[in-house]
Amino acid sequence: MNNLKNNYFYSLDIFRGFCGYGVAICHLNAFAFGNAFLEYSSLLFVEFFFVLSGFVLYPQLLKVINNNKNLFIFYKRRWIRTLPLYIVILIAVSALTNQLFTLDFFKYLTLTQKFLPEFIGNDYFPVAWSLSIEEIFYLLFPILLIFLNKKNFLFYVFLCFFLLLTFKFLFVSKINADFYRTGTFLRLDSILFGFILAHYKNIIISNRFIILSICLFSLSIYLGNYQFFIFEKELPIIKVIFIIFMQLTSASVLFSFILIEPFLKNKIIKKIGLIISSQTYSIYLIHIILIYLFKKLDFNILLTNSLYLLSLFIISFLVYNYFEKPLLQLRPKIK
């Protein structure tokens, strides 16, 4: 297991790509063909992203703690990575849906659309809610870290995590299920959870049987009871349990992917993982445009899915190589 104790896992490149295409496929079949199960499954794929984000950012955030000068470098790296493409795709989606420069457009532009319940009038860019959570986490959490005692920072991270959980538990009956799952400040705990997992990754990885057992258990509960979770989603206890199962499932699936790391020594496999991983962000943002377009075509499910995936791969490949990659080369390095 020693070869699993590092800070970079090629298996997580595959996991990231798995999440990106998982969200895209689920959304197409949910929005274009009314598949309720895949719409439900898409929630889990997005949750994977949250936990993965906190997990992979852990080393960078530690450098912010150790050197406060890295704070603004961290901001630049995150904003260059996420905001330019988001703004371009937002403009494209807004133009496609005749929402350009409306009030809702500016809410999306400032990533405030999910700050309050029913704050957005027309949720025409539905995948953007998760990016709002990510950006607020990038903005607030590093500031919190630099004010913490370096030796005891994890104590305060746990404290923040449980305070947020407590707040959500106390007010669960006053928040509808959809906002409880997508509200910007209510979902910071999932990224924070990924950060905590990264701190204990070596201990967790050493318990292979427990990881796989939890993975199978949580997946079976989550997927096997989807109708129950959908129909009873407004019950306070169900809101809480649903989020817990998503986080538990996300963590166990993430570590299950890490367990396959020793089998990814082949350079071709690593290269494929890097290619898929690099396209994930553009896939996540762009797929909603393709869904709007493909919904207008009267094709059968198989043909629609095939053309959709092919188009998504080609477009995201071009976007990454000719738009994202040049920008990424401008990012400063964290000291």
Protein architecture, described:
With 335 residues, the protein is mainly alpha-helical. It has one domain (2-328). It contains 15 helices and no strands. The chain has helices at residues 10-31, 36-66, 70-96, 103-109, 128-146, 153-170, 177-182, 188-199, 201-205, 208-224, 226-231, 236-258, 267-278, 280-294, 301-328. α10 (208-224) crosses α12. The longest helix has 31 residues, at 36-66.
Our Rg estimate from Cα atoms comes to: 20 Å
Mean pLDDT: 93
Helix content: over 70%
How far the N terminus sits from the C terminus, by CA atoms, comes to 30 Å
Task: Please count the beta strands (DSSP E, at least 2 residues each).
Answer: 0
Order of helices and strands: HHHHHHHHHHHHHHH
Which structural class do you get from the secondary structure elements?
mainly alpha
Strand content: under 5%
| Domain unit count | 1
Tally the helices. Answer: 15
Largest sheet: none
Shape: globular
Uncertain residue ranges? none
